[in-house]
Write a structure and sequence with these properties.
Pathway: Amino-acid biosynthesis; L-histidine biosynthesis; L-histidine from 5-phospho-alpha-D-ribose 1-diphosphate: step 9/9
Strand order of the largest sheet: 1-11-10-9-12-13
GO molecular function, one term: histidinol dehydrogenase activity
Enzyme class: oxidoreductase
Order of helices and strands: EHHHHHEEEHEHEHEHEEHEHHEHEEHEHH
Number of domains: 3
Catalytic activity: L-histidinol + 2 NAD(+) + H2O = L-histidine + 2 NADH + 3 H(+)
Number of strands: 14
Shape: globular
Strand content: 15-25%
EC number: 1.1.1.23
Radius of gyration: 25 Å
CATH architecture of the largest domain: 3-Layer(aba) Sandwich
Length: 424
């Protein structure tokens, strides 16, 4: 694994350069725009054709029968079902604390102000298909939506010749998904955004996918809301000489195995630790089943940066704003205030990143590619909308009317001023 020894300024410049290397793929943008236009015009017929062309599956009905879902749930091995239920319980207990309510105040005589918090009516969950199966992502997406009060959670996933993965169906039932449709790719995003005869239109689309799915989400944003434009997975680790190189290497590889473009990163003031972790990464790669993917990630995207001290390590990680951040130093949680930009933080030797992927409870749908500077993890607040309300008595309006008309006329909006004066 590449070890970088440079001044802090040089390291900072390298981080900035890497973050600015956002690929622009106009050919994909054009292909996705064409798919969206086709689905808008031809609806289910377009979806049927894309299933044949892209997935090599012929479907007479996109909707997965409830009997199929129930059968998958009933056949789920007991230990796997217990693990899913544990994850559900912890995700629920964590996200319940995010539930927020509206308010009303009457602090001024004759004036009532307030805010009403309401759930979105319908949301769409995209679940990748193929060889991938992410039941944990279904739980992470659907449970906060249910807690927010969303009534309709529509799941789409690419059709499979042998049927949808049964664990995916089990997780969907456990999480309270309303309906599952066998549609994938950019065409599934288009169907959720605009609706077809079979697939209902939703208010928000969430969930991971390939570059076509991500591009489609970006193009339909505004017609519907989206969770975020997610990039490849990232893990950043801050560690000192007290950390265990074997465990650090295992944590770096836990994210490297996701994708050849995943970014495993370690920042440490110890050159000795850096060298030991690099050697451990090489050793552990030899027995990792997804070694080809992880090796490409480590060699092309990963790095170990050696800095002067822990303060520089935190400053550099705040600039990177990683999706996942592990802090592997003594009394790690005491450094909480030094963390400004990160999606999810894991403190101490026992808090390995996969803990957050599955059962701890905090969400694993997180901002990537530096967007933790301004985005937050998925949660209950992503599934509600707020409406403001105001009521004034005539006397209360009269008290503030001169200020209103003065401001309106400064802005050149005489009609605004006259609307107030009409009530005097």
């Amino acid at each position: 694994m590449q070890i970088i020894q440079a001044t802090y300024e040089q390291l900072s410049a390298q981080v900035t350069q890497r973050q600015n290397q956002t690929a622009n793929k106009p050919e994909i943008e054009a292909a996705v725009a064409k798919i969206i236009a086709n689905v808008r015009q031809n609806g289910d017929a377009a979806l049927t054709q894309y299933a044949q062309d892209f997935d090599k599956v012929s479907l007479s009905d996109f909707k997965v029968p409830q009997a199929t879902i129930d059968a998958a749930y009933d056949a789920c091995p007991a230990d796997l079902l217990a693990a899913l239920k544990l994850a559900k319980r912890n995700i629920t207990s964590y996200h319940k604390k995010e539930i927020t309510y509206g308010f009303m105040d009457a602090e001024q005589p004759g004036v009532i102000r307030g805010q009403k918090v309401m759930p979105l009516a319908a949301v769409g969950l995209y679940v990748p298909g193929g060889t991938a199966a992410y039941p944990s992502t279904i739980l992470m997406s659907a449970i906060p939506a249910k807690l927010a009060g969303v009534e309709k959670i529509v799941m789409v996933t690419p059709p499979q010749k042998d049927g949808i993965n049964p664990t995916v169906l089990t997780a969907a039932k456990l999480a309270g998904v309303s309906a599952i449709y066998q549609v994938g790719g950019a065409q599934a995003v288009a169907a959720l955004a605009y609706g077809t005869k079979t697939i209902p239109q939703v208010d928000k689309i969430m969930g991971p996918g390939n570059i076509f799915v991500a591009t489609a989400k970006k193009q339909v944003f505004g017609q519907v809301d989206i969770d975020m434009i997610a990039g490849p997975s990232e893990i950043g680790i801050i560690a000192d000489k007290s950390a265990d190189p074997k465990k650090l290497a295992a944590d770096l590889l836990s994210q490297a195995e996701h994708d050849k473009l995943a970014r495993p990163m370690l920042v440490t003031p110890s050159l000795e630790l850096a060298q030991a972790v690099s050697a451990q990464v090489d050793a552990q790669l030899t027995t990792l089943p997804r070694a080809e993917i992880a090796r490409a990630s480590v060699e092309n995207e990963g790095f170990i940066a050696v800095v002067a001290n822990l303060d520089q390590a935190f400053d550099l990680m705040n600039q990177i704003a990683p999706e996942h951040l592990e802090v592997q130093v003594p009394e790690a949680i005491t450094y909480l205030d030094q963390i400004k930009n990160a999606g999810s933080v894991f403190f101490g030797e026992s808090a390995s990143e996969p803990l957050g992927d599955y059962v701890a409870g905090p969400n694993h749908i997180l901002p990537t590619a530096g967007s933790a500077r301004f985005f937050s993890p998925l949660g209950v607040l992503d599934f509600v909308k707020r409406t403001q309300f105001i009521q004034y008595t005539p006397a209360a309006l009269a008290k503030e009317s001169k200020a209103i008309t003065r401001l309106a006329r400064v802005e050149g909006l005489e009609g605004h001023a006259r609307a107030i004066e009409a009530r005097q």
